[in-house]
Each structure stands twice: as C-alpha cells, then as structure tokens.
Amino acid sequence: MCYRIYLKKNEEKRIVAGHSWVYANEVARIEGKDKNGSLASVFAHDGRFIGKGYINHASKILVRVFIRNDGVDDRAFYLDAIARAKNYREKLGYKNCYRAVFAEADNLPALIVDKYGDYLVIQCLSLGIDQRKKLICECLSEIFKPKGIYERSDVSVRKKEGLPEVKELLYGEVPDYCPIEENGIKMLVDVKNGQKTGYFLDQKENRFAIRKYCAGAENVLDCFCNSGGFSLNAATVAKNVIACDISPLALKNVEDNARLNGFKNVTTLQGDVFEVLRGFRREKRLFDTVILDPPAFCKTADEVKDAYRGYKDVNLTAMKIVRSGGFLITCSCSHYMTMPLFEKMLIEAARESGRRVRSVEVKTQAPDHPSLLCADETQYLKFFILQVE
Predict the structure, then answer these.
(1) Contact criterion met (CB below 8 Å) for 85 and 101
(2) Residue 218 near residue 288 (C-beta atoms within 8 A)
C-alpha cells in the first residue's frame, strides 16, 4: 500500500498555493507502507487530497509534491514536463546555452538540467529523483538529442537526502570543456570540475547589461570572476579588465576564454578578494567599474549574520576604490540574504564609505531560472548596479 501522508491542521495552505515541500514536522500521521523514495499521496488534515510526491524519511523535507491529480510519474509524465520546460525557454529565444529544467519552478523538484551547446549537465538533489535518473536521462535524450549527459551531483545538499556526492558520465560522450556561445562571446565551460554544473547561466542577461557601465572604462575590476563571464562582457567595451579569483583553475579558464575570443585586454589576478580589495585601497588605486559576484556567503539561515558582515565588508571596500562617477556592480546568490536585507546592507556600506551612492538598476536571475511566487526559495539572485560619486 502506498504511503498516505496526513498534514496537521492548516499546514496544507502553502502546498495548495503551489509550494512543493512538505516538512516532516508538518505531518500529523503516516499511513501505508512502501519503499523510501516512492510516490506518496499527501492529504490535508480533513482528508482532502493535496497531491503526490517522492517521500524520503531521511530528509527534513519528507515529501516533494509535483503531481496535483491522479497522475503517475511514468515516462509520459517526464517527457511532457521536460518538453514543457524546453518549449518555454525556446519561446524566449534561448538556444545554445540555458537552464533547461529549474527544479520546483518547472514542477520537477530537485532536478536541475543545464544545456551547454550539444551537451547536458544534470543534478539530482533528492532520493526520488536520483532513483529515476535512468528514466530521466532517456527522456532528456529523446527530447534534446544531446551528444552526452554528465551528472554533477557533487553537492553537499545530497547528504541531507542520505545520498553520496556523485560526478559521472550518464550518456554518450562529454568533453572536459563544452563550447558555448553567450551574448556573442565564445566560452569553454568546465563541466566536470567547474563550480555548480560548470557555469552560472543565471547571470546571462546581467552580464550583457554591464556593457553600458563599462563602455570606455580605463580599468574594470571583476572580483570572484569564476570563468570570466562578466570579465569578457566588460572586455568588449572597456580598455583594461582585471579578472580576480582565488582559484587557479578558474583563472586558467578565464585566460583560455579570453584567448578564444581574441581579447588582449584581460589580465588575471589570483588572490583572496577581500585582501586584494584592501590592498588596492591601501595603494589608493581606483577603478571605473568594480564587479562583485561572490559565491553564496550563507547556505543556511544560521549563517546570515556572518554573511551580512562579509557582504558589507567586501561592498564597503569596493565602494572606496570606485572612481568618482564610476560604478559598483554587486550581487548575492543566496536566498537567505533576502532582497530587503541585501539592500539594507548596501545602504549601511554606502553610509560608512563616505561616498554618495545612487541605485541605477536592480535585476534578478535570468528568465530561464523562473521563480515561483509561492516559493521564495526559487527567487534568490540580487543584482544591483550602483553609481558611486
């Protein structure tokens, strides 16, 4: 008999509104018996059917609901869901590289699929999805016809699901570096060893948007540059760009990508960004544009206070090295650092910097990373363009 999950009174409201996650502490009782990772039915306290999702007793998220009717998670379901996700992106004009499946936002909780040219990279972040990996790959192969599919499930969140970190080839052949074209720029994406699935596709439009703020700039500093997405967009219009990161592997990728595009105005700098910025401050060195795109400083709610200090420190120092009239482009990719909290931090940093700072543009993640209004976890990226006087 399949698991039947009955929620505590009033705990169904969030799920009925479209959220996927049922937490273990929201459950009144569990009836039936099946395998861990199986499809479970979820009911309100009064017995109303809410939906179905994969159950995992090892996780605080007991069930991830994604079927709202009497349907089943068969091949036809996955083909339809993946095709819908693909069609949405294609209608927006995405072709070469984009997030093809964005988990809850595409009604496929815990499944991430990124398209890099002829190759796909996937992450399976829950037990139920992991158990259906073979079926999912078959559906992806049928719909996208890729040359290869690579798994980058080497993320710590899998431990909460009782799963090991995994990195392996699932289908066809996948090179170490997958060629893509973004905003007219050629890139080689390190899908096997780069961060996340190899590249941060959620900043595509934002990377293009910085060009007008780097146009004619004598010096641009791109901090936490990773493989150089912002650096290369800046290099199309600026005279000189410094790409700074602590990772030698990332900087090699920047150099390779700059060479691939014939950019001779990009130089790399290895170092801890906090120390590098303080060093520029001591030297009284100024930049026309400074870009801050750090990794998430907080991955849990308990880390927000320390993360706030880190964001404030790096933004305050950056504001002090922007030439008068220049721009600070700053981001946060942690959903725990909410938009109001991030803006509060910037206001404090501006006040303490002694500079007059104007907000020019505020943006978020790219449209291939849509967010659900009922699930603030899916709205995570903050992107501010500030003018510093």
Answers:
(1) yes
(2) yes
